[in-house]
Amino acid sequence: MSFEDAELLKEFVVESQEHLSDVENQLLTLESQGDSMDVALVNTVFRAVHSIKGAAGFLGLETLQGLAHREEEVLNKLRNHELRPTSVVINTLLKATDRLKGLLDEIDDSNGQDVSEHLVALERILSGDADTLSTTFVTTDTPVEVASSASTDGLSGEVLREFLVESYDNLEQLERDLMSLERNQGASEIINSAFRNIHTIKGTAGFLGFSKLEKVTHVAENLFGNIRSGKMKLGSDVSSGLFKMIDAVRQILSCIERHNDEGEENIEPLVTLLSSLGDDAPTDGGATKAKAKATSKARALKAGNAKSQPPAALAHGTNKNASVQTKSKPLSKTSSTKLTAPVTKAVTHLTIEKTTSSEIPNVLANPETPAAASEKPAISMVESAEQASPQTMSQKPAKGDSEVSAADSTIRVDVSLLDKLMTCVGELVLARNQILQFTNGKVESELHGTSQRLNIITTELQEGVMKTRMQPIGNVWSKFPRLVRDLAVICEKQVRIEMEGKETELDKTIIEAIKDPLTHLVRNTVDHGIERPEVRLANGKAAEGCLTLRAYHEGGQVNIEICDDGAGLNFERIKAKAIERGLMTSEQIARMADRDVGNLIFLPGFSTAEKVSNVSGRGVGMDVVKTNIEKIGGTVDLQSQHGLGTTVKIKIPLTLAIIPALIVSNDGNRYAIPQVNLLELVRLDGDQVKNGIEWIQGSPVYRLRGRLLPLVYLREQLMTQADAAAEAEALNIVVLRADDRQFGLIVDRISDTEEIVVKPLSKQLKGVAVYSGTTIMGDGRVALILDVMGLAHSSNVISGVRDHSVGDHLGRENASRSHLQSFLVLRVGESRRYALPLDQVTRLEKIDTGLVERADQQEVVQYRGEILPLIRLSECMGVPSLLSDVSLMDVVVYTEAGRSVGLVVDQIVDIVESELTNTRATQRAGLINSAVIHGHVTDLLDLPAVIRMVDPTFFQDCTSA
Amino acid sequence: MIATKQLCTFKLGSHLFGVDAQSVQEVIRYQEMTKVPMAPPAISGLINLRGQIVTALDLRFRLGFGKLEGDRKPMNVVVRSDDGAVSLLVDQIGDVIEVDDRNFEEPPDTLSGAARDLILGAYKLEGQLLLLLDCDEAVRIAPDKKE
Lengths: 961, 147
Prior knowledge:
The complex is a heterodimer. Chain A is α+β, with helices and mostly antiparallel strands. Chain A is built from 35 helices and 30 strands. In chain A, a hairpin with a 3-residue loop joins strand 19 and strand 20 (832-837). By secondary structure, chain B is mostly beta strands. Chain B has helices at residues 59-62, 114-118, 135-139, and strands at 4-12, 15-20, 24-28, 43-49, 52-58, 75-81, 84-90, 92-100, 104-105, 119-125, 128-133. In chain B, strand 10 (119-125) and strand 11 form a beta hairpin. Chain B is globular and about 45 Å long. The model of chain B is unreliable at 143-147 (pLDDT under 50). The interface between A and B is medium-sized, with 27 and 29 residues.
């Protein structure tokens, strides 16, 4: 290597990466601008690439230099309007830029790398042969991470860090505001909030001496000022400009974070752009003038409405409170020394709203302050103009100081401290539970009263501490509208984003952890999930696709769903790909349900995308998503219907949570069931214990208000031994919800609901699917928390094969209950299907063929102390039965007026709800008609007629009896 | 220099075992346990150790010994592991013994089965062998591997 200084090289890499991080977005903007592209922006890109080229040449990085040089040439042509920013050109540039980034990443052997492909592509563009280029290009992120950075330059690191953290926050808020403003033009609070945000950044930047930052934010502030005064509309050009501004500010911030200076990036084009967007571009002279004017205007206000404004000032101060965080002390020192008149007053009013009432007259005496807070556009000018002047410098500290007082109500706390607090509270809750249990037995003791108080206080404390760590998921989502908007532009799609459950709160650490996976999924959805408008229209959908983000709590877990109404997964293609890539064998594939096939895309190295786009398609993404979610103990599940859309469901456990749970016991052990999964409790006693539960093909069911509820014995699931004394006189069914299915869990005893502290399972127990955690009960013993989803899976309540869900059923039921009838579907012989109205069925039994006896020319069995005559449906219908050599046969028991008859069938297929359509009359005895039930032609049995065929006296006896 | 270390000793059947005293959090008598149905058989249950939930491992099972006879209750040697504290159920607790590395010997090749993986070697004490248990290995139970 021809350079000696590793430091220098490192600096070059970092600097160049920064240059490039914005180039991508800028190129995309250029593309979207098309022929009306902003030459200033091209210049920015050009300069970025140029400086890389220069430095690379100096450092002897020939490959880098060469590639940058070729890219620069193309940009030059763009700049001179010799080329149009078509997607091919931009794509090639992006691709080359990515390659540059790649080279920077492996700077040590960058000279040995092959970039000829890119050189050729760029060359082709230069020679006007662009059309033959491939359009593949590569994706990159521009991550903006807040990391602690030490600093020098006389600024304490603390101050700088807080500034950065705050400004990032403010920017994020600003971005959100801007998004909603685009949709909702006139919303004055949002404009105000945006104005305040940008103003705060500007103010602090000025104080800290970041002149570039100040300049950019200043022009933006002016724009907002104009918008808020109604002078300007927020057109798409303006908002794009403002978005660019946000990006630029972000970039400067990250630069400050890393190097303590604002970087080399030229912001002039942006400033010019933003200025030109505003009606009155503030040139140096103009700004001064405006300032003078504003000051005089403020004075005029002082004379005019001296007494009437203070409330507004207070209101303003409070608003600030919301957007401003702590400022540290050094700021206030300067503020007391050299303050310009109007600003002094601003400080005063902001201070008083935090301090005593005695200072209120002060405010009354200083009415410029309200003016500063009022909606006059001139006001932004007061704090404007050439920011480097000493006057401005002194003005900024004042702002800082005002923020100190305004923000006293919030502090930043180390998360680890909160963690510790949380653990302590968890212990306290357990101790509380123990004490409560202890005192509950004793009546009216002094201890009783005290423990009650302890109870209440603990609960409050617990809630409080929990809240400190919680953040609404909306914080993560807030950046998605922008992301979706940009991606949609790139992909030439129309996408609307909807959010449900924004306020769903998650632990802070979890919020951090899901940020990236969610971003990836959203990206994927826009890129792959949602079709192009023309395709959508052709498929009878609205041109605009809809991406829905949904979050809610379920069973001590947070569910996050990302749904789209796009094309859905192409299962056949996934299968083919999986086989092609050797991830699965064709036998494995053949056995898989669609749901499982969908989840194949989470396998590493899986991508069905024909080409890799800049958005997604490299096949690493989904694998990374899954790994990241699983790292925090979550799960990812994917459901898709071809042509209708895809839903990705993420479940994240709250390991550090205190949740209400139902305590049940079974075979001497206690278990906690998260309340969220709980629907209701059913208790069967007396006769019902025996008769309430019916069996279909060996699966117990219970009729819960007319619907069949699959039952699961906890004993069977846990494979525990029944207590000898457990022959209970009552049966307890805990009706649970897992996903969208319901099932009943049969337990020995149901105790009470209790607040439990969820503790994670030890490593040795992680693999046991039926538990989600452990907890300590009031008596100090450990109880296991049942994982309802796990139970549902292990008991096959959820198999992924059934396509209809309880939710669907309920919906349909309400809509058209009157048309629906429940049928028991039976099979006889190879393929003959028969249906019986379910209400004619008393019971379904499996009867050992060995028990069949004969009486009076007829097959009978002894059944519940009676003789049950058997009718073989195959014989009645003249269909050959396949039931020759089975030991158990399925029998449908029909009871009428105390007499029963058993109908022997080959197989009980299902219980279905169906409308009777497509019926065809039939002449055959014993049949009502034929109909299509669930896609099969099914003969509807006339059971009384069938019985009469075999035993003509059956009903006569009934009536005579 | 003579390298010595302290071992916390305990008995399983007639064998004397030791674990590095550094890794032992505490030694407690028998505790009520919550059984965990469906768990790997080496897991005896869960213990509440002053608010900390500790998984109790049946060391007899891990080493291929039979069940503890009669009504005797095992004792807990609570060791620290990467994944929090784990209790090893043993028959009887012994002293903390200082051992000399010169008396250490690798296990003979004839040793087989589960013991092979869990025993690091033996200290030749007078009249008795002190078997050094590999703590990390002992608490490592693959979740899906039913032993």
